[in-house]
Design goal:
With 234 residues, this protein is mainly β. Helices cover 11% and strands 40% of the residues. Keywords: Signal. Residues 1-21 form the signal peptide.
Length: 234
Amino acid sequence: MKKILPVLILALFLTACQRPAPGGSSSTVIDWVDFVKWDGVEYHRVNDRVLSSTDMLGDKVGEVNFKVDENVTNPSYQTKNGDAAFLHKGTNLYQVKGNPSWIAVKDPNEVNDYRLYQASGDEEKNDFKKIEETEIDRIEVYHGQQPPIKVTTHSDPGSIQKYINLLKKGEPDPGFTPDRTDENKDPEYYELVFYSKENGAYKQSVRFDGKTWFWHQGETETLPKEIEPLFSKA
């Protein structure tokens, strides 16, 4: 059992495959989880939360010493403090006030300019049901990803409740296929950021194919057409 357990842990952490290399030989390419390791703890990127304010940014705890992606080809490599999957050497790591299990990293392509990482084992999937149970004081709407561009902000309590109620009316449709009349155009991408008094605001992505608004909540859901004003400039 002592010989098997490390292998199982490694298998959950990364996937390795053989790919042809120049000259016909093969090399091991590792598909890394987006992680950073610090003080003996592995932190994994959180995609459904963002830093609600830079006021929540704490002290610098350290910096990345080594980027493993494209530099490590040994599947048995043991990660070390300061290692990161995709962050470059010298990237600063910051505490998040009130959330000791989080680390923040500067990222201009993220809402509020910081990417969040959470200690492995402490991750919590924050679906819309979790958001429903939270006291939301504003909703921000962003368009695109590189970087996301703010479209509008909704802070009126009546409007917030109205849109949350409409989002709750999403209809499960696992067989839904976005309209691709224009084969060269992907569905429009939006991000909804729900702010509360917590340090990390909730983030949910929504897409629009020109006819239908939809998102993924475990499975694909189509949203009522009445939701459209949520994504328009006030």
